[in-house]
Design brief:
Elements (H helix, E strand, L loop, with lengths): L20 E7 L11 E7 L3 H10 L6 E4 L5 E3 L4 E7 L7 E5 L2 E5 L4 H10 L2 E2 L11 H6 L3 E2 L2 E2 L4 E7 L5 E5 L17 E8 L1 E2 L2 H18 L19 H8 L5 E2 L2 E3 L7 E3 L5 H19 L8 E3 L6
Helix pairs in contact: 2-4
């Protein structure tokens, strides 16, 4: 299988030095939280940072590179995604208590697991992570947030590997965090981050995480494939409120449906295609713009080309 990787390497023999997992034309159906989508032309899951650095240093310049954490807020179109996709592995989940209120966290760590760990170290300010699906790396890249907090509030500095496999560090002030976006280039791979909170009693942290968990469970769809919030909020308007006013709960397009529990979530009712989700989202965008004069923007990252799955 590694032979299929050789065409995108400057030195094909370097495959003998790689120790990760490689897939050629890998379907995302069992990887994506939507349980829908096309094929990734090349997929590599590196064993560790050294392995990833070797691969990056040997990639041909023309190959398109896309980085994923858990594919929680991403839709890969049915026509698939060309180039090389990298899925961050378990080695990038390490968490270290560096100083009193600072945690060094691997980019592949789940947001909710970091929130739980903050209890042990009595670090407040990270509780909101329990309400965000996906990984720390993805959250940083899109400045994810919920319940009044965002990643920009807790990021101290970020470690990266660049396209050539070289290490780079950026302070938070060097990253232009905005609402649900940042200026981090697509070809910089987040490897770890220092997160900073503040001293807080364990029981208070537990109580806050429990509150967030209860809100999430009671207000968001559970037990079915979904990709998290579909659209960004618009200025002082909540996307779910605008959609709710349309009266489109349970609106369907193929196998995709607007959740009646939270109108800013789309769910897979069984056999939805990526195009079903995208088409349903575009219908909502058109309806909101027609009725309220507001054009909603996708919060979900949509990648790849249209076509049959």
């Amino acid at each position: 299988m590694f032979n299929n990787l050789k065409p995108i390497l400057k030195t094909p023999s370097v495959v003998d030095e790689l120790s990760g997992k490689f897939f050629y034309k890998k379907s995302v159906k069992n990887l994506s939280w939507f349980k829908a989508g096309g094929v990734l032309e090349y997929l590599y899951i590196p064993k560790n940072e050294t392995d990833l650095s070797i691969l990056l240093n040997e990639l041909i310049p023309s190959i398109e590179l896309t980085i994923f954490g858990k594919l929680s807020n991403t839709l890969i179109r049915d026509g698939g995604l060309s180039g090389l996709s990298i899925l961050m592995p378990s080695d990038f989940k390490k968490l270290t208590h560096k100083e009193q209120n600072i945690l060094n966290v691997g980019s592949g760590a789940l947001d909710k697991e970091v929130a739980k760990k903050s209890i042990d170290f009595q670090i407040g300010g990270l509780e909101f992570l329990s309400g965000i699906p996906g990984t720390i790396g993805g959250g940083i890249f899109m400045n994810a947030g919920c319940y009044g907090s965002e990643f920009k509030d807790i990021v101290l500095d970020v470690n990266f590997l660049n396209r050539n496999g070289k290490k780079i560090k950026k302070k938070a002030k060097e990253i232009d965090f905005k609402y649900r976006e940042s200026n981090i280039p697509k070809d910089l791979i987040i490897t770890s981050v220092n997160l900073m909170g503040f001293k807080k009693n364990k029981e208070e942290i537990k109580r806050k995480i429990c509150e967030i968990s209860k809100k999430r469970i009671s207000s968001q769809p559970q037990g079915c494939p979904t990709g998290g919030s579909t659209f960004k909020n618009y200025k002082n308007y909540k996307a779910w409120e605008l959609i709710s006013k349309l009266g489109v709960s349970n609106l369907r397009c193929g196998g995709a449906m607007i959740s009646d529990l939270h109108n800013n979530f789309m769910i897979n009712t069984g056999k939805a295609k990526a195009s079903d989700f995208e088409n349903l989202g575009e219908i909502i965008i058109d309806k909101v713009q027609s009725q309220f004069g507001i054009k909603l923007e996708w919060e979900i990252q949509i990648l790849g080309k249209n076509g049959k799955n």
